[in-house]
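Margin note: ligand = flavin mononucleotide.
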Amino acid sequence: MSDIPEVLKSILELARWAPSGDNLQPWRFEILGEDRLRLHIRRENDVYDFGGAATRTTSGVMLETLRIAASSQARGMKWVLAFEDPAALKFEIDFPLLPSLAQDPLAAWIKQRSVDRRPYRMQALTEAEKQALQSAVGPMFQIRWFETFAEKWAITRLNARATWLRLTIPETFAIHQRIIDWDNRLSPDRVPATAVGLDPMTRQLMRWALGNWARASFLNHYLAGPLMPVIEMDVLPGLRCAAHFAFTCPQALTSRDEIFLAAGQALQRFWLTAASLGLVMQPAFATLAFAYYGERARSFSTEPGTASKATAIAQEFNLRFGLGSEQAPFLGRIGRQVVAPPSSRSTRRELSELIYR
Ligand SMILES: Cc1cc2nc3c(=O)[nH]c(=O)nc-3n(C[C@H](O)[C@H](O)[C@H](O)COP(=O)(O)O)c2cc1C
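Resulting structure:
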């Protein structure tokens, strides 16, 4: 650690708190000089990466977090995507000294911001809050809000179908086995089971089912296995929130890759702004993934019958948003906490583990 220049160390100590899907933290930092680094983003190439979308979104989240964190050190930031292959994206980044640069006020929220998967208050967002969130995402994306009971129910049903599908295929089973931390309420490298939004009994059932695929498959086929998780993870929280939202970019001005990267940058500004307003949120990324497979009739599972389920999700996605999945590259729900912040959350790996050597 003593080999990391002080300025980079301060920036990275903050930026490592950026969120990533399943808390994978797929980033490694290669130090190139006093104020230069290479950011390596590992590609997962799994079902949840749907044509590289998650890798791009995560890259955007980290780039934006680095930019905000650098402002605390009176540093600007310039980045370029220097290299990509099936294993990783590599960005080269400079942090030039800009003595008169003011700290971005969002920097204060980088560590505090955390996903909240519980039900929220149903109190609507104010116009001022919606405007602040719209200006946070910038002109490339228009935020669409789904606020009435009927709208929330429609998006909740869509998300519930996606959750049902992801809980019944072997391709995501292995991912869930790997990323859930059953032993810790604060998990530095996974998602704590206690932060997933399940009550203790359903959590125990899920732990048993995740023991091996034969158990999960038996539950799914004979005992409606995903029913309770879907009710607890989608239906109740989906109705108990201020709104669902989608980032939309109806006129595709640029490539799919650029849209998801920009969506990641916008996401981090949106999420930090929400935190600064006392709001919490939860993404709904799996819905996007299955809409993508359904739109393209692309196979993603060995389990029979999954292709038609993804087609149905894609059709419903189009019905609700009036757009294809890459023109609505980020979805979630937002609101105010009912009680205190959750006592269980994902934390982060130490910076020393994130240095590329
Ligand atoms: C691109 C992206 C997609 C995500 N998708 C989901 C999701 O579909 N459902 C969910 O509950 N959390 C989702 N998350 C939240 C992450 O699991 C969470 O941010 C991560 O575990 C770190 O935890 P923290 O936000 O509490 O720091 C997503 C986060 C990111 C950045």
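The pocket of flavin mononucleotide is lined by residues 19-23, 54, 57-58, 61, 114-115, 117, 191, 282-286, 345-346 (CB under 6 Å).
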